């Protein structure tokens, strides 16, 4: 398992395991699992070759405009 400044990096097997836990959980358990892991089940996880960890795409609009720009406007300009 690789590590980074945020702790151990998630593996595909770990991601799939947490998604399976979410699928079989009650509504209140699902809320707790989502808050703790940020993982839900997806139809893509049914594909054996799908690797959600290595194949993640950075979305420029959400990452830049809503993340960096929002923080910059708030911290620098006080908006």
Order of helices and strands: EEHHH
Beta content comes to 5-15%
Radius of gyration: 16 Å
Write down the overall geometry. extended
What structural class do you assign from the helix and strand content?
Answer: mainly alpha
How many strand units? 2
Helical percent range?
40-55%
What is the spatial order of strands in the main beta sheet? 1-2
Largest sheet: 2 strands, antiparallel
Mean pLDDT: 81
Oligomer: single chain
Unreliable sequence segments = none
Number of domains: 1
Number of helices: 3
Distance between the termini: 41 Å
Please explain how this structure is put together:
The protein has helices at 12-23, 27-37, 60-75, and strands spanning 3-4, 7-8. The chain has 79 residues and is mainly α. The chain has one domain (3-75). The N and C termini lie far apart (41 Å).
């Amino acid at each position: 398992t690789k590590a980074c400044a945020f702790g151990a990096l998630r593996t595909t097997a770990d991601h799939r395991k947490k998604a399976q836990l979410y699928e079989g959980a009650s509504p209140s358990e699902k809320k707790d699992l989502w808050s703790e892991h940020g993982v839900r089940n997806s139809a893509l996880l049914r594909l054996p070759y799908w690797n959600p960890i290595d194949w993640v795409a950075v979305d420029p609009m959400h990452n830049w405009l809503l993340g960096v720009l929002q923080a910059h406007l708030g911290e620098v300009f006080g908006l």
